Amino acid sequence: MVIDVEKNLVEYRSALVAFANSLTRNLDDANDLFQETSYKIIKNQDKYKNGTNFRAWSYTIMRNIFINNYRKKKRRNLLIDETDNDYYLDYNQGQVANQGEHDLRYEELMKMVNSLNNDFRVPFVMRYSGYKYDEIADELKLPLGTIKSRIHFARKKLKDMIAKESA
Fold first, then answer.
1. Are 116 and 106 in contact (CB under 8 A)?
2. Distance between CA atoms of 162 and 152, rounded to whole angstroms?
3. In 3D, which of 113, 9, 14, 102 has the Cα closest to residue 61?
4. Distance from CA of residue 10 to its chain's centroid?
5. Whether residue 55 is found in the same domain as residue 110
6. Could you give the number of structural domains in the chain?
7. Mean pLDDT for the stretch of residues 37-55
């Protein structure tokens, strides 16, 4: 028994649009969602198994489309600026004081870096200066994994030193 997809879509149209409206809470978006769902149902009608509840099957397709579209919109995280002047974007936003300079001075940090063993200090300083990992490996004639490891351990040692200093 082959189902007549178009007949079922016509029969369940009002229920599907109502479900779409409950998801989107906007009639235009609901109609768009229904249209996209109808297209997917027609496109994938060969995947419909006889005996399956057509209404439930179409609701599942609609819900999945809605969730996927919602995730796409969330990922984009668009910020639309409708102000006439860029000045207003930061208007009335106070400045936040940076207390970092009081907690640990640059000179103290450099003393900590300089106290590291040369095996850790040299790759760390090179990375800090803007060299890429592979450039450091070429310059020091060491394997890339060794360079990454030494920089990682240098950061870890520095974090420990900072924690002890601030305690």
1. no
2. 15
3. 9
4. 39
5. no
6. 2
7. 89
